[in-house]
Amino acid sequence: MEKIDILSLDLPELEKWLTEMGEKKFRGKQIFQWLHVKRIFDFDEMTDISVQLRAKLKEHFCVNRLFVQKKLESSIDNTVKYLYKLSDGNFVETVLMDYSYGKSICISTQVGCKMGCRFCASAIAGFVRNLEPSEILMQIYETEKDMGIRVSGVVLMGIGEPLDNYDNVIKFLRLISDKNGNNLSLRHVSLSTCGIVPRIYELAELHLGLTLSVSLHSADNDKRSEIMPVNRTYNMNSLIEACRSYIEKTGRRVTFEYAVIDNVNSSDKDADKLADLLRGMNCHVNLIPVNKVRERSYRTARSGVSEFAKRLGQRGINATVRRTLGSDIEAACGQLRRDAAGQNTNGGAVC
Ligand code: SAH
């Protein structure tokens, strides 16, 4: 009998299982709190649960822990990068970042990615599988346990496309914010997507209160199709339309991610086109110096990014340049996982 992954169950599901097994419903809340509040993952340590019920839990459930395969700590800025090994031997990356307002964690949602963005290391290594809700969640719980901290913000910007693993990501968001459990306000969560348009509409309907980040990287439809194949399925106009609708439905500002790449999307004309595209929208632009990936020749001149930001600002578009974190520990998405699979890339930082 295959055991049930207990950390992927929400409270009503856990209560349903317990009542079907002839147990009292309130036991569900107790067990849920052991897991999500006290972070006790060994059923034997759940001391207010009877020995008989603990035995039943052990028989039917498993807790899929993540194992630290590699842990890199930046000596420059306290960024910590984990390569976690999953129970099936696959790897995912998680990055803990230290900001003045608290710790923020960048987590992965898939093993690999199908989206094929030209500049992204995750894309080169290909797609393996979706992460379960518990595997997304445990990147946070294991990191918090290892570091003895609590994170104040979560960004879904690691390996994978969150909206391509929609159901598990939504379940994860419900688990992490459950009032009876970890109780993180989703206002402190950002979800980054390359632009799976129908899912943006669906997400808006849920009114979760999270920040939607959209990886735009070009305001020119043809150019965007070249560097982001997803644009051939959901073109830029349909993406911007979906973002407008998201803003209107949720009242939340959207962030646009833009990796500035020399000779690709960094000219004055590119900045003007972006300003025209976003004018009047309740949004913010986050400019990223592109990270080096060995197989690609993409580069960013630091001065290019600030020039680009300045030009956007002059055209009324609110833009910031993302601080590069963990530049000494290869913190860019997908690079460690590929190393583990024997494929090397260069350093740099994204998350
Ligand atoms: N699939 C999602 C989230 C993962 S990627 C998305 O596309 O948004 C997280 C962010 O890092 C995205 O904005 C992505 O475009 C960006 N990114 C990927 N590789 C990069 C690189 N080499 N340099 C700079 N940003 C990169």
Would you kindly provide a written description of the structure presented here, covering whatever features stand out?
It is a single chain. The protein is an alpha/beta fold and 351 residues long. The chain has 13 helices and 14 strands. It has helices at 11-20, 26-36, 51-60, 121-125, 133-147, 166-176, 197-206, 221-227, 230-233, 236-250, 268-278, 302-314, 335-340; strands at residues 4-5, 61-62, 67-73, 80-85, 91-99, 102-106, 110-112, 127-130, 153-156, 189-193, 211-215, 254-260, 283-289, 319-321. It has a 10-stranded mixed β-sheet with strand order 3-4-5-6-9-10-11-12-13-14. Helix 5 (133-147) crosses helix 6 (166-176) and helix 11 crosses helix 12 (302-314). The longest helix is centred in the middle third of the chain and has 15 residues, at 133-147. The radius of gyration is 21 Å and the shape is globular. The two termini are 39 Å apart. 44% of the residues are buried. The model is unreliable at 343-351 (pLDDT under 50). Bound molecules: S-adenosyl-L-homocysteine (SAH).
Brief account:
With 351 residues, the protein is α/β, with parallel strands linked by helices. It has 13 helices and 14 strands.
